[in-house]
Amino acid sequence: MTGSLTRRTAVPDTRKTRALIIAAGQGTRLRPYTDDRPKCMVEIAGRPMLHHQMRALRAHGISEFVIIRGYLGDRIVPDAPEGVRFVDNTDFKNNNILMSLFTAGSNLAGDCVVSYADIVYHPDVVRAVLSSPAPGALIVDRQWHSAYEGRTDHPVSEAELCRLNRSLPGLVEEVGKQVGPTGAYGEFIGLARFRAPLVARLWAHYSAALYRGVDAPLGNAPSLRKAYLTDLINEAIADGEYFAAVPIDGRWREIDTVQDLERAHAIVNW
């Protein structure tokens, strides 16, 4: 693949960077593969999704992991036990990605990498997100169209697409399913890095939303319970926060449906 990943950029010291992996969902569209295991433990190319992620993160110095679990959480087995902590989202049936992430509590502090659990990515994608100097960095796939060719069980309307700020090149103006393909720069893949001061400010935004109530709307979400991470990011952008779009050209996959899983085996060969 060509693009930003081909550039040799220095990766900062990541020994104090913590990875939080949101792995609480039920994975209903991956049944029967998720009948006896959580989504992140479904195998692709002979290895659970979670293990692909952890190996890619470890390859760039990440050694501290917080896995937020819910559905069949006791069956989540990391690639190695060192540096791994579990946090339980006991209300996973009723809340979405955003509330699941903040279940981490005090573990969500300092410099953090946040990853959805149903994606796999090449280690170079981790290098790219860690190398961004911005307070917040979102991995955005510019070649997103190709992944949706023939992807009938997961239409483009479900893609968390990203639009850039015209006045501030490289910075995100809006991200999420509401953006739509017209004028979209690419797809946010579900991998982000937030520096410590920004994490503290995101907590302030989340706390304010929590004060308004879990059934009150948040951005484009009908309620905080149903909100995505992107809803909070958009709130923060509107308040003046900076999130860089870190471009990649493929080398990742989301596995949300059985169709995705069948297609991924032939693609995830790194």
List keywords for this structure.
about 270 residues, alpha/beta, Spore Coat Polysaccharide Biosynthesis Protein SpsA, Chain A, nine-stranded mixed sheet, 7 helices, about 25% helix, globular, disordered N terminus
What does this structure look like?
- This protein has 270 residues and is an alpha/beta fold.
- The protein has one domain: Spore Coat Polysaccharide Biosynthesis Protein SpsA, Chain A, CATH 3.90.550.10.
- It has helices at residues 49-58, 97-102, 123-131, 144-147, 196-212, 229-238, 258-267, and strands at residues 18-23, 43-44, 47-48, 64-69, 84-88, 112-116, 119-121, 136-141, 161-164, 172-176, 186-194, 243-248, 252-254.
- The strands form 3 sheets. Strands 1, 4, 5, 6, 8, 9, 10, 11 and 12 form a 9-stranded mixed sheet that branches. The protein has a two-stranded antiparallel ribbon with strand order 2-3. The chain has a two-stranded antiparallel ribbon with strand order 7-13.
- Helix 1 (49-58) packs across helix 3 (123-131) and helix 5 (196-212) crosses helix 6 (229-238).
- The longest helix has 17 residues, at 196-212.
- The chain is globular and about 45 Å long.
- The two termini are 12 Å apart.
